[in-house]
């Protein structure tokens, strides 16, 4: 027994010696630095640059006044953006009348949505690398500048420029509102708070058409944008004094690094491609024919730029605005497609339902705002209900199935309206549409927060908001194309009313330009065009329903279920960063880089530890590993020395070919292995050779 113990100890010492005196270390010379020990190898690496990610449990303090003041600031900024999205809906006809530009109606919404969608991805990168507080506050200031330009615009072109500036800044506000709330509220409690998020959004949407209609009829439509100035000032002041996000030290970077972080190569292809798409949709059928070389060229440029953008994202994933590893995740892919179609359906209803009331029902902007209350009030109610139900059952997919189902039914019924439809019909149809919309507004974002690792959540949220804005921009232009094309088709036979007159006149002004005997014909043409727009919205809702069937069923009560920040764990282990004991295929290792050896086992090379893992925990874990190994030797598992041909330097190990030695080892293993796994944190002890009797 003494000989056995001495041989085992000698083998163990030999393994340790090979760990600290590897051949490559000797080749470095006497002046080379000593190799770090096990604890130093497992010490945590510096955290990646990114937005502060404090512990959710530390920030979730619902009894703290600062907690609610921060949320109040957050919701005020959200209210500001949501109000600006809908306040223009009832004012669009009057704006187009004043500027004599019916053809620009689509741009009043598309300019805002286009710049928002383009800037959304950039803000996703900015929030990741720069101070969240100041990025958010600068966005509020720029938004105020854009609103001031819209209010003072002397022409339709200047107005569109102001909308573009405001839309660019709203992307930063919208992303910031969600990113502020995410670290403050744990995932399993987040649906209720996102219900509040949806409620604020809905209340702003309710007040938007009413305020817009009141300003348009009682004063001027310009106050629809001047009203943003005091609201933005209050939000800015509250944020400065009450919001103190955790600070993070970031290493200095050169100007070139700052530029690369924003993916400039991708933006070179993405921006012109999106603009070409919107121009083609805006001009086709109204300014130019669909088979015009200009329209064909725009679509071709869009396709080429999009293909180039995809290639850039694949080749440069580290700086990509749309990282392939994020967008190819199943729930992210289907969730963003769901958001794209749902947002397009929503914006088509928000913009063209007021136009239907003002042109078909011949009501003023205030009444048209009041008549759209069923659509938005039901949205507020259902968003709260959806948040409560989702938090109760723990799954978000049911809401994603209910939302487009109700919306498609409601929008299909809206397409049956005519000038003589009673109020009970259009009110009930709007209520059904809005109730479905409220169920689906926030669910895709919650899914992204559940399936992605924390380091990718901000990118996923930015992508989701991007497709939401892009969907609104694209399908608002589609609605304008449908409206213009059908009006030209239906009214071109009226004497003195050509296609250019129909396109350039305002939405409500056109009725007054035709002779009295043709007034009913104009109303019928508007009703026919709006019916087709509502049918298009129904088709988009049905497309979002198909996307919902592709979502993964993940429970928010189990916490975030995406892969860890680094590589996924193996064999059910808790992390990928501890050393893994595995049986050796040759002894001693042919390549010293395989790691130290002990009793026929090879210690795999230690990988980088999980970020933030305390050094004290690493020491205790290593001590526990050594203790378990000692217990195994004391219990007799390793009481017999290995065969002579396995002992380094023995004649048997030198004698004979490596092939025959390896075959002998494999035969010994196949007959003597028994199951003796030991759980060591994130490690797994493989089966050990059983001694012969």
Automatic annotation (TrEMBL):
Polar residues composition bias: residue spans: 672-682
Ranges annotated as biased composition (Basic and acidic residues): 661-671
SUPFAM superfamilies, sorted: MFS general substrate transporter
Gene3D superfamilies attached to this UniProt entry: MFS general substrate transporter like domains, Multidrug resistance protein D
Record localization: Membrane
GO cellular component: plasma membrane
Record's protein name: Aflatoxin efflux pump
The species this protein was found in: Neurospora hispaniola
């Amino acid at each position: 027994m003494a000989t056995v113990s001495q041989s085992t100890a000698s083998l163990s010492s030999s393994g340790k010696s090979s760990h600290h005196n590897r051949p490559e270390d000797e080749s470095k010379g006497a002046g080379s630095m000593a190799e770090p020990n096990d604890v130093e190898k497992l010490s945590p690496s510096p955290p990646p640059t990114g937005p502060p990610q404090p512990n959710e449990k530390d920030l979730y303090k619902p009894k703290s006044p600062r907690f609610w003041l921060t949320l109040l600031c957050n919701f005020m900024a959200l209210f500001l953006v949501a109000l600006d999205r809908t306040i223009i809906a009832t004012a669009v006809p009057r704006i187009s009348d004043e500027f004599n530009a019916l053809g620009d109606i689509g741009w009043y919404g598309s300019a805002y949505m286009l710049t928002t969608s383009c800037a959304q991805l950039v803000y996703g990168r900015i929030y990741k690398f720069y101070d969240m507080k100041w990025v958010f506050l600068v966005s509020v200031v720029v938004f105020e500048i854009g609103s001031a330009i819209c209010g003072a615009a002397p022409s339709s072109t200047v107005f569109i420029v102001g909308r573009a500036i405001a839309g660019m800044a709203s992307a930063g506000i919208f992303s910031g509102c969600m990113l502020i709330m995410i670290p403050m509220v744990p995932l399993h409690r987040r649906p209720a708070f996102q219900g509040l998020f949806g409620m604020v959004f809905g209340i702003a949407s309710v007040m938007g058409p009413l305020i817009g209609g009141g300003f348009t009829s009682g004063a001027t439509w310009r106050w629809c944008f001047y009203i943003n100035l005091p609201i933005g000032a209050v939000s800015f002041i509250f944020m400065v004094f009450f919001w103190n996000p955790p600070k993070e030290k970031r290493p200095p970077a050169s100007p070139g690094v700052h530029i690369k972080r924003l993916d400039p190569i991708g933006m070179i292809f993405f921006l012109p491609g999106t603009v070409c798409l919107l121009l083609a949709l805006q001009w086709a059928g109204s300014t130019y024919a669909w088979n015009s070389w200009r329209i064909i060229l725009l679509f071709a440029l869009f396709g080429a730029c999009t293909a180039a953008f995809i290639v850039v994202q694949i080749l440069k994933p580290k700086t990509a605005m749309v990282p392939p590893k994020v967008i190819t995740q199943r729930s992210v892919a289907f969730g963003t497609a769901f958001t794209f179609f749902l947002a397009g359906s929503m914006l088509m209803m928000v913009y063209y339902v007021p136009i239907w009331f003002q042109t078909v029902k011949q009501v003023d902007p205030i009444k048209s705002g009041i008549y759209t209350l069923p659509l938005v009030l039901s949205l507020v109610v259902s968003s709260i209900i959806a948040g409560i139900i989702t938090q109760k059952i723990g799954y978000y997919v049911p809401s994603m199935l209910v939302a487009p189902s109700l919306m498609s039914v409601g929008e299909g019924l809206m397409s049956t309206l005519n000038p003589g439809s009673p109020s009970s019909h259009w009110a009930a149809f709007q209520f059904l549409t809005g109730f479905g919309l409220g169920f689906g507004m926030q669910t895709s974002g919650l899914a992204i927060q559940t399936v992605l690792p924390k380091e990718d959540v901000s990118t996923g949220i930015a992508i989701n908001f991007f497709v939401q804005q892009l969907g609104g921009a694209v399908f608002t232009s589609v609605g304008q194309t449908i409206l213009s094309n059908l009006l030209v088709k239906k009214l071109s036979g009226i004497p003195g009313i050509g296609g250019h007159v129909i396109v350039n006149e305002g939405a409500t002004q056109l009725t007054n330009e035709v002779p009295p005997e043709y007034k009913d014909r104009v109303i019928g043409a508007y009703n026919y065009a709006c019916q087709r727009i509502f049918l298009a919205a129904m088709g988009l809702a049905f497309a979002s329903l198909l996307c919902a069937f592709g979502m993964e069923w993940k429970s928010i009560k189990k916490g975030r279920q995406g892969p860890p920040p680094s590589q996924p764990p193996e064999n059910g282990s808790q992390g990928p960063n501890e050393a893994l004991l595995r049986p050796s295929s040759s002894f001693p290792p042919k390549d010293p880089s395989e790691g130290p050896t002990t009793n026929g086992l090879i210690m795999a090379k230690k990988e980088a530890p999980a970020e933030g893992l305390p050094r004290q925990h690493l020491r205790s874990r290593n001590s526990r590993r050594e203790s378990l190994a000692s217990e195994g030797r004391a219990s007799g598992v390793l009481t017999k020395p290995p065969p002579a041909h396995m002992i380094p330097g023995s004649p048997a190990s030198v004698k004979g070919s490596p092939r025959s030695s390896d075959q002998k080892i494999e035969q010994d293993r196949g007959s003597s292995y028994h199951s003796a796994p030991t759980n060591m944190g994130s490690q797994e002890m493989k089966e050990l050779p059983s001694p012969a009797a």
